[in-house]
Amino acid sequence: MAAAKEDGNDTLDELLKDKARIEELSSDEEEVFKRGNNDAANVGGGVPFPGMDQLKPKRKLEYLPPWLHDASINLFHDDLETPTSEAQQKTRAECLPLLTGEDTQGLELNIYGLPHLRRQKHTDFLRTTFNKLPAPYQVVDASRPWLFYWTVGGLSFLGEDVTQYRERLIETVRPLQNPTGGFGGGHGQYSHCACTYATVLALAAVGGLEVVDRKAMWHWLGTVKQADGGFRMAVGAEEDIRGAYCAMTVITLLNLPFELPAEAPARKAGLDTFTDRLGEWVGRCQTYEGGIAGAPNNEAHGAYAFCALACLSILDVPHKSIPKYLDVQALASCLASLQTMPEGGFAGRTNKLVDACYSHWVGGCWALLQAALSGGSSGRNSVKLDDLWSREGLVRYLLCCCQQPGKKGGMRDKPSTRPDGYHTCYSLAGLSAAQNHYSYSKEGQAVDKQSGRLIAAFHWTAERPTVGEMKALKFDEEDRVGFVHPVFVLPMDVIEATRRQFAESRL
Fold first, then answer.
1. Residue 62 resides in a domain
2. What domain range includes position 23?
3. 223-254: per-residue pLDDT in tens?
4. What's the CA gap between 368 and 19, in Å, rounded?
5. pTM of the full predicted structure?
6. Is 42 contained in some domain?
7. Residue 71 within a domain
8. Cβ(166)–Cβ(433) under 8 Å?
9. How far is CA 99 from the centre of its chain?
């Protein structure tokens, strides 16, 4: 029991104490009690089973979506058993009782019978990252900036004021910044695009971007720009779609010149700007099945699809850049196939298990695709893509299956796993994508004519759902997550503040 206590889970004594309460019987249950439940007890004749009359019937929700009906679940049968099919069956068995309401895990329920978003518990869980971490966290010592971003990002999605952590974060990341530009994952480590991206987002969230050496950053990013148009993750490291998205995010938020530094190696190949050949390189990452790979000729992956779409949405307005370089219909079809049944969440690759983090990596793609297909108007009244994915399915999966019960809080991959900051942050971002509406302005421009700044990604607006939509998706106001920017994955007001902070900045 000591291990359970240290883990933050409820002990057996606490669970029994919580469960030991008197509940008033409903009228139906009272009638069953009065009858002694004879029908159930005497199915086989003879003496009724002692205590049968006191057993509560299994809880059932009044409404279940079509994909959770037995007829839908049992529609297809695959007689071929493989390790993959066995894992899928196990995951389905874990999720179904939670999705149908048979097992509520003791969570407080909203008016539709689904668990409330455990806002305070998730907030408390994320805040523990600011304390001394246990020994197993040594394995992520080279990824410290991600811990900062997942924590302050997740807290800000929940509506928490994270500016209180500004000075602590600045002092923590200052030693991670290299004199040659960019941030490493830990002390004394080489600068890396992913760690630089996470650091910049975390600093933006708390209002601490003044610590960034923008001129050195510009020069360092010039060293990872490649002659074929893509970006390496670090000097001499792999070239992939993450590097392109991370680099373009940093360039845009910090308002760095999009002309390459004079010493940038890519200039020898005739490139003049960070955007040269970038769109063509992203286009070559699309696979035969319509998805996006990390690099040309690799396997498609849901997270890379988001990186590609977001990168192109920085490069130019999405209804121009995305259709120009990608087969949008094929990509939409591929991403739609990643929504799993009956869980309702998304998998990262074909024939893989549902995972809550793809609520963002795939669920976050739909606003970008909507903008690409609707000619710049992607709001509630534009051409709909909703039929290609189920917002209701994603909301139900996240609320029912991905919230850690008990005292600990946090969100998890699936019911059999433990919560962590990564899945908490991206589950909340995915919940925001499913609950809210994001629109792109038809009048959006790619480049500011006066300053030359890339501004294509700053033309997004957000709308809250209507009362009718909330009813259809089965969540209350207290279950709603705030607006998360479709490209930069930070609160909308944080992105606007960052845009203004560097609006007139020059190197």
1. no
2. 1-31
3. 999 999 999 999 999 999 999 999 999 999 99
4. 46
5. 0.87
6. no
7. no
8. no
9. 20
